[in-house]
Write a structure and sequence with these properties.
- The structure holds two protein chains of two kinds.
- By secondary structure, chain A is mainly β.
- In chain A, strands 2-11-10-5-6 form a five-stranded mixed β-sheet, with no helix packed on it. In chain A, strands 3-9-8-7 form a four-stranded antiparallel β-sheet, with no helix packed on it.
- In chain A, strand 7 and strand 8 form a beta hairpin.
- Chain A is globular.
- In chain B, strand 5 and strand 6 form a beta hairpin.
- Chain B is globular, with a radius of gyration of 13 Å.
- Chain B starts with a strand and ends with a strand.
- The chains are: A mainly beta, B mainly beta.
Chain lengths: ~120, ~110
């Protein structure tokens, strides 16, 4: 079974500081994408950032960046200059392109609270 | 706006009743997914369509659940004889844009009383 582990159920950070959310996954596939989604209290699932597994360069999207370690199957999300609007549940989700019809497999989520 | 519209957004139903949710993706990309999410958990895969063909169903999709995508555009998810354990948010998603990214609709909340 392809598993996704987010080992931090809850995290908190002060506004303007930096926080890193961890994610590890287990797969034997070589062709896949990795995603981080956020789900604020409104429950809308919002894409944060995407990483192609074949790319060595870590993806960045404004204040969000990833540390992708393919050999270690690790995909952490760094949020810089945290803002109150970043408060949400964050999900790591690999998308395997081989035998799984490209469906996402979600981790358990990390609740991030940004304090003023 | 992710280009995926779901309705109804909220549904309260009595146990034993049937409910139907609809998903309308603006993009006519051929891949569409349904997920279920309970409070405090990550979404769980239910089923996948490529065009009008339902190619994969999770074991979570009991025989009380049926999903269709008759013309390869919108999709429906019907739950018959609802049970309290069916209370959850049902999410529809499709694949859009570069990198085959999956985008989600706003979800349909189901409460079975």
């Amino acid at each position: 079974a392809q598993t996704v582990t987010q080992s931090q159920p809850e995290m908190s950070v002060q506004e303007a500081e930096t926080v890193t959310l961890s994610c590890t996954y287990d797969t034997s596939e070589s062709n896949y994408y990795l995603f981080w989604y956020k789900q604020p209290p409104s429950r809308q699932m919002i894409l944060v950032i995407r990483q192609e597994a074949y790319k060595q360069q870590n993806a960045t999207e404004n204040r969000f960046s990833v540390n992708f370690q393919k050999a270690a199957k690790s995909f952490s999300l760094k949020i810089s200059d945290s803002q109150l609007g970043d408060t949400a549940m964050y999900f790591c989700a690999p998308r395997y392109c081989g035998t799984s019809y490209g469906k996402l497999t979600f981790g358990q989520g990390t609740i991030l609270t940004v304090h003023p | 706006d992710t280009g995926v519209s779901q309705n109804p957004r909220h549904k309260i139903t009595k146990r034993g009743q049937n409910v139907t949710f609809r998903c309308d993706p603006i993009s006519e990309h051929n891949r569409l997914y349904w997920y279920r999410q309970t409070l405090g958990q990550g979404p769980e895969f239910l089923t996948y369509f490529q065009n009008e063909a339902q190619l994969e169903k999770s074991r979570l999709l009991s025989d009380r659940f049926s999903a269709e995508r008759p013309k390869g555009s919108f999709s429906t998810l019907e739950i018959q004889r609802t049970e309290q354990g069916d209370s959850a948010m049902y999410l529809c998603a499709n694949v859009q844009g570069p990198g085959n990214t999956i985008y989600f609709g706003e979800g349909s909340w189901l409460t079975v009383v």
